[in-house]
TrEMBL record:
InterPro entries for this protein: Galactose-bd-like_sf, NADH-UbQ_OxRdtase-assoc_prot30, NDUFAF1
GO biological process: NADH dehydrogenase complex assembly
Transmembrane segment boundaries: none
Gene Ontology molecular function: any one: unfolded protein binding
Signal peptide: none
Full protein name: Complex I intermediate-associated protein 30-domain-containing protein
Family (UniProt): Belongs to the CIA30 family.
Pfam families: CIA30
Record organism: Aspergillus coremiiformis
Domain NADH:ubiquinone oxidoreductase intermediate-associated protein residues, every copy: 18-179
Length: 230
């Protein structure tokens, strides 16, 4: 299969993890108590996204995330078909991967400024490769799906992030996700995967096949629902 796939390594894999590439954006900026880290050692090919999701402070809501650093970074992914997350070990919890076309700085109050976000939820189990097509990323704004959003500009992806969130109180406590690599993939003869493609797990939110994460309503939807923040 690999002979039919072109990869652009983004993090990990043949590119060593640089933890200065990531920074925490947790619900503490909104009065919560959750926290997250992205850690590893020079001798290990794996990065660990871990922390604690506290949903009591915000009444059942909460989030903890790591996002890429640098307001001037840009990835051109327009020649690729989607992203591959190579998971080394999961904890059977649901996570969210996001993309943005803008890297807005924090506001004077320390809060992340509102921005259009494309997101995809996935279930992290044992070692697996999860391929996410661009069409499977859902545009959201302030926690709501934005059906009239312009398409994601794949020539200018400015920010990526990994998130753990409560999904309206269904997840809480310690979490840990070990990641070997994140890469963009292009298939020389693009096709949908069949059941015999054992090397990959295709996550399709529309069909619900392979995993069925709780219904997502955006980055801070749990906060909006429980605390009326938006």
């Amino acid at each position: 299969m690999d002979s039919n796939v072109a990869r652009l390594p983004l993090f990990g894999g043949p590119r060593a993890w640089q933890f200065s590439d990531w920074t925490s954006v947790d619900d503490r900026v909104r009065g919560g108590s959750s926290y997250s880290y992205m850690t590893g050692s020079p001798a290990s090919p794996t990065a660990r996204f871990h922390g604690n999701l506290n949903i009591t402070t915000l009444g059942g809501a909460g989030f903890a995330s790591q996002q890429t650093t640098g307001e001037n970074r840009t990835w051109d992914l327009s020649h690729y078909d989607g992203l591959e997350l190579h998971i080394a070990r999961g904890d059977r919890k649901h996570y969210t991967f996001t993309l943005q076309n803008a890297a807005l700085p924090q506001g004077p109050d320390g809060r992340q400024q509102s921005n259009l976000v494309w997101e995809h939820d996935f279930l992290a189990e044992d070692e697996q490769k999860i391929f996410v097509k661009w069409a499977d990323f859902t545009p959201t704004y302030r926690g709501r799906e934005k059906t009239d959003a312009e398409p994601l500009d794949l020539t200018a992806v400015k920010r990526m992030s990994l998130m753990m969130r409560s999904f309206f109180g269904t997840q809480e406590g310690p979490f840990s996700l070990d990641i070997l690599s994140i890469a963009a993939l292009r298939f020389k003869q693009y096709r949908d995967y069949q059941e015999d493609d054992e090397d990959y797990v295709v996550v399709d939110e529309k069909s619900g096949e392979e995993s069925n994460p709780p219904k997502s309503r955006g980055w801070f939807s749990g906060l909006r629902e429980c605390c009326g923040l938006f």
